[in-house]
Amino acid sequence: MFRLLLILLLFSSAVSANKNTLPDSNGTLVPVGSWYLGLSVGVGALKNPLRGQDNIPLYVLPEFRYYGERFSVENLDVSFTLYDAPAYSLELVGQQNMDGLLFPGDNRRLMASFTGMIPIRSRDVVETAVELPPLYPEHKSMSYMAGVAARYFGWFDAQVLALTDVSKVHHGYEINLSLGKQYNWKNINFEAQFGATYKSSKLTEYYYNGEYQELFYQVYNYRADSAINPYIQLSAAYDLGNNYFVSGNVRNIWLDDTIHHSPIFEDTHLLTYFIGIKKLF
């Protein structure tokens, strides 16, 4: 249940407008120093690419935000502005890592061994895609990332985030680069975002390594390497008035070969979508 709540909070940020640009019912910007709450009700899903894991339905997306002079909260994301100018900013940021949310959270699924008392005779490291028996994901701890974000605001928006694991789960880091463009037409807001995320080998090894034993007592160990995951996100919102919006969002992440070649995967991408009605309070 806690893992599902985290996923709902994470994705509800994606179906919202960008920081400091969400209009109220009169079309004005949210004032600095104000809290607001939101609730989206609709239909959506997170397509889990891990083997044997169910897709995660998205029906209700809670949302809470606060924008201060320097400090802001956007659901599970926090930021503190070090330098701010009309066209760019530099911030300290923290956000939930998405990788751990895909894994089962209640128990581990272990591979059965035929003769646990017999010592391992050899050990091979597999780093490329080969024909391997199915392996199911085990429980993995969730992690929280923190670091620095540089943002540019202009005809298009650009940002670079460098984040490291501050929860001491995998001790890895990731770097995200994205470009986005917003377009407003009457009561409709469109946004397209393209980007890529670099994940360090420590991060991918913790979540995506795979190990199992076969009949002849030979242990195979799939070792994930550093990865680059490109992604695209499209969203739209229509202002119905009185703080009601129709909003939709679709995001697709193409998984690096070193990730989806892991025997715990059965798909090559991570798709998330949602369409519904949002109410701001």
From TrEMBL:
Cellular component GO terms, alphabetical: cell outer membrane
Domain of life, source organism: Bacteria
Annotated protein name in UniProt: Outer membrane protein
Pfam families given in the database record: MipA (PF06629)
Cited PANTHER family: MLTA-INTERACTING PROTEIN-RELATED
Family: Belongs to the MipA/OmpV family.
Keyword Cell membrane in annotation: no
Coiled-coil residue spans: none
Coarse class of the protein's main subcellular location: membrane
Localization in the cell: Cell outer membrane
Signal peptide (residue range): 1-17
InterPro entries found in the cross-reference section: MipA
UniProt KW keywords: Cell outer membrane, Membrane, Signal
Signal is among the record's keywords: yes
